[in-house]
């Protein structure tokens, strides 16, 4: 025999009652279950409210009427007219009785816990009566049972303690007489020996189901609700939370301790003791298998079963020399708290025994503090103890699961996820059962922390990167289109989801908690945006406090650079193709690195040199493995490379420059390429990464342009001057050609010196063969001493650059 318990949301509406009936219909062929019902959703709370209003002599009639109407409406909708009247009459009797009781509360201006329980009992009685009547339309031999007659309790109204032996007997006797009927039992309510109504406290209908199940040795207890089972985390916090197939009793208890909402496992203890399996099922999705809670679970692949959290706690910290080695101390402390009925959520003690930290509900904190001050007055006055301090606005998160037991690396994974996201851990507790590790953190970090930890443990789910992008030009635009087209691939092959949460260019910006749809980012930016304000952008990004964040700079502006350090310090990784940051003052370059290291986040800038070519990464790997760089020789201007490779035949120099610009190889201002500045920045960044603390003034650059071109004050003027100096460039070319050589602008780092020179090289030179916007770099090192390591390929252009930025972002996601 099974117990099927339907909670408030499963009995609150016409649709849910229909669903309930069809669930019963498919269940009945396997034998009659016992159905336990809650009050219609929301009714218990309404009754509490109405009772309170009555006590204060306020008008409650409308609210009472609305409860009545809900029951009547259901009857009207689901019963044929001819069958309605007897139900209406009985319901009217219930509501008249309730009205009478409320009247007396009003007259006496007194609402005792006993009266309150009596008032609340109408919720379950009306719902069970109504639904059992509706069931008569579908099933034979239906019986409505007032469960309060069969569960006997003490007189602790509001949260009564059950007399199990007596209740078991009453239930068994009743069932023996009526097992042929389809029984509908009121949940939540019970009675004292002398017949006064009591209630069973939080999760009371679950408790009723467990008591009946245990008394009758049910084969299964089904808890029908409005979600697909117990989830891995609170779905209001973690969008990706998913239903668990199976939990052990212990896991269910641990998860619920910190607030799993669908079932309140402590009430299921009678079922646990008899090893009866419990299933959480969704009334609105009955085909879904739901969550099984049972004693012997199958081995699971999940490293943890879930993350539970308590939104608001306060911690008290007690410390002092008086505690060391005093065995009675914590005994006194905790019996004091228990005497005061203060529930201790979590305790940690330093191994020096010098301090104890414990967490309580904020409502209990001041009381706890005062009680401690009183109890330990002597120790406090003699300085053996320090006056305890309170810390509020904190939350607790706990990871729970039996697989954590004896598995090294679990706590590392937890703290790594928290650390990388800049979540400061205030206190830690691990039960010696190893089923649960709990940490206390700031309340404002709760959502970020739970999401980051969920991502870290449930790696079979997509991990989400939250990306904030500056710049919607050549590179920015291309990055968005690459991200957009690669989304499905990333999801499938990298278990990664990249969500763009903010976009800004120099005119407009837009940030969104939902993320920006990359198929229409341009319209979104036009329609919803505000005026660009970088300071504000960064502030908002930080305030969103999301896990796994990346700040991407695709501008050529000095302004974003001012924010890198503060962004890194707030545990947000930075990816930049903008070279201004790393080629500024050396102290600034160092500060970025230090900020990233300290915060444990990434600062990636692969595209600063050679666009998407793996140059920065290669150099870093060489350095990390202890190699020494003796020489770097390189062509690192894609623009100049393109110009020399295409300045052939009767083509004009300035036309080729314009073509390079049109192809997206040049900087936004092409003068930055031709005057060597862009090349200088790249050589400087390489030299710094190779361990030389250099400034830009240390780089010597041979001008490739005549003085008149260098002096041009606008881009238009620049092109005019290139045209005017056409013969200068023709000369350079023909001289080289006459000698069987080609022109190459080459950078070199050797003996701590960096120079960039214009050279004519013949075919014996390794840099002779180049095409398109090719870059080439050769590293001569201790290990690559005879023949250098060479990286070569297209070193400019929107596609290859955006791809490099993309790869940096993904690499952050992979860590
Ligand atoms: N083109 C290449 O092959 C290549 C290769 C490697 C690196 N880069 C680098 O890429 C960067 C972008 O180049 P691009 O060609 O896309 O430039 P672009 O001029 O096309 O676009 C720059 C974007 O930055 C925005 N912007 C400027 N200042 C801003 C600010 N303060 N806040 C927010 N947005 C701002 C502009 O509105 C524009 O959308 C440059 O730093 C360049 O050095 C380019
Ligand atoms: N303008 C740059 C882009 C790549 O950094 C170049 O021409 O090399
Ligand atoms: Na690169």
Features:
single chain; Carbamate kinase; Rossmann fold; 29 strands; 20% strand; elongated; binds nicotinamide-adenine-dinucleotide; binds L-homoserine; nucleotide-binding; oxidoreductase; NADP binding; metal-binding; methionine biosynthesis
Please describe what this structure looks like:
- The chain has 29 helices and 29 strands.
- It is of the alpha/beta class and 815 residues long.
- The longest helix is centred in the first third of the chain and has 28 residues, at 81-108.
- An eight-stranded mixed sheet has the order 3-4-2-1-7-9-10-8, with helices on both faces.
- The mean pLDDT is 93.
- Helices cover 43% and strands 20% of the residues.
- Helix 14 (410-420) packs across helix 15 and helix 19 (561-569) packs parallel to helix 20 (586-599).
- Strand 28 and strand 29 (789-794) form a beta hairpin.
- The chain folds into four domains: 2-41 and 121-226, Carbamate kinase, CATH 3.40.1160; 306-457, VC0802-like, CATH 3.30.2130; 462-562 and 596-611 and 798-815, 3-Layer(aba) Sandwich (Rossmann fold); 625-796, 2-Layer Sandwich (Dihydrodipicolinate Reductase, domain 2).
- Bound molecules: nicotinamide-adenine-dinucleotide, L-homoserine and sodium ion.
- Nicotinamide-adenine-dinucleotide binds at residues 470-476, 504-506, 532, 534, 554-557, 559-560, 577-579, 607, 611, 638, 664-665, 667-668, 796-797, 801.
- Residues 399-477 form the ACT domain.
- One of its GO terms (biological process) is homoserine biosynthetic process.
- One of its GO terms (molecular function) is NADP binding.
